[in-house]
Structures are given as structure tokens and as C-alpha cells.
Amino acid sequence: MRPAIIAHRGARSLAPENTLAAARLAYELGADLWETDVGVTADGALILFHDDALTRTTDAEQRFPDRAPWTFTAFTLEEIRSLDAGSRFVETDPFGEIAAGHVAPEALAGYRGVPVPTVEEAVSLTQALGWRVNLELKRQPPPMDAFPLLEAVFALLDRLKAGPETVILSSFDLDLLRRARRLRPEFRYQAVLGFYRDRPIDWQAAADFDELNPRAGLTPPAKVAELAAAGKRVHPWTVNDPEEALGYLEAGAAGLFTDYPQRLVPLVR
Fold first, then answer.
1. What is the CATH number of the domain that holds 147?
2. Residues 174-213: pLDDT tens digits?
3. DSSP-derived secondary structure for 79-107
4. pTM for the full model?
5. Does 91 reside within a domain?
6. How many domains would you assign to the chain?
7. Whole domain around residue 132: which residue ranges?
8. Mind listing the pLDDT tens digit for each residue in 27-55?
9. Residue 155 forms part of a structural domain
10. 168 φ/ψ angles, rounded to the nearest 5 degrees
11. Rounded CA gap, 85 and 74, in Å?
12. Does residue 61 belong to any structural domain of this protein?
């Protein structure tokens, strides 16, 4: 089986991260699947969002100036859906791909005003494309830190009839993953490792997981080779340089998370 190229938050170097536009573009570029982050709104809706604060990728600070620190769990779905989740990408060009001429002007125009998607929209799009998505289950910031995330996610997947052919589940919260695995053993579960970039990974903490998604900066190719030899499927994140990617592929990585599927897909095709 050839290694999987996993579009990190979609093709986020070319489109606003964690939007349906970034997902569609990753699919068009030939990524094997995409990865996104599950968040919960103040009224219990499941959305795609990475940071605790809405400010880096939306216009929340301008729209709601009196709501600092703009934690997404303090906003309702209606409020979050009213935000512009695309213009900040156009204006800041976070990966320099716009300046390099790699994003067409008509695409840029289309990114302005795109909304934060719901998880339902993300999974439905993935199903329609006959594709696959990795849903990272995040610890939710207060006031939604006690929200029954697993139950809500599984209820949604059951309603959409989205099974392991469509969805992989991952998390830094290994106890949450273990509970999910007990509840629904038919899904694939991937332990995300290396939350702190300046601390070594505790590999033993994830010894009971067959699939590991470790921070690339803390996981040299030699470690990937060691883990692969022990039967683990290893998917380092985030690998954007083709030369670095080749080192991991030669070491036996089962897949690579990347912000640049346009660079890495050709390496494995």
C-alpha cells in the first residue's frame, strides 16, 4: 500500500484552512484524505476549527469587538456562521503562495466570505467525493470542556451513515480515543503525539495504539523506521519539504500530513 498524503486542514497553503474550499482543493490536487479539527459551539453544534480563539482566521475581532478573547466555544453557531473565514487568508497570505502566483485571482475572490463549516458539511462533502477525512477530536476550551464530544460525533456519523470507509478519528487525548475505541471498535484511531514542540514524545504512553501521528520535528526518520519495523503505522505531521518527505517515505512512513499536497502528491504517484 502506497503512503497516504494527508491534506492538513485541507490544502491550507492555497486556501483558507478548515474550510470546504480547502478540502475540495486538496481532493482536486490528489491528496488521499484530509484532516480537520472538531470544535463545539456555545450551543452544542459541531464545527471545524483549530485555534481556541477565532481571531487568526476570521473577522471575529472586528465583528464582535467586545467579546475578547474570542474563544470559539463562547459563540453560538449562528454567530460563528456569520463570520468571514476566508478574507484573512487572502489578506495575510500565510504561506506566501499568493505572492508566488500559485493562487488564481478568481479563487482569491471566491475565498472572501467563506463560512466556518459544520462537521456535518465536512463529512457530507467527503462522502459525496468518495473520499476520506481524519477528524481530530480536540479538548474543548471552557465553557464547553464538559461537552459529550464522542457521543455527539458518533450520533452525527450514524445519522449520515458515515463509517470507517469515510472517517478516521484522531486525538492528543489518548484516554478519549481509548473510550471511543471501546464504544466503536470498527473505526480507525490514531494517537496524535508531540503537543509540546520542546518536550520529547512519550512513546510508551501510546504503546496500545497501532497508528501514530507524531510531530515531525520530534520524530526523525530513524524513529519512524523503528516504529514501522515494530508494526506501527506512522504519519508524521507536518511535513512540507519534499526532500524531508522523501526521508520519511524511505523510512517507512504510512503517510504524511502536509500543508502542501501540491508538492507531496507527485512524490508518491
1. 3.20.20.190
2. 999 999 999 999 999 999 999 999 999 999 999 999 999 9
3. HHHTS-SSHHHHHH-TTSTTTTT-S-HHH
4. 0.97
5. no
6. 1
7. 4-51+120-268
8. 999 999 999 999 999 999 999 999 999 99
9. yes
10. -115, 145
11. 17
12. no
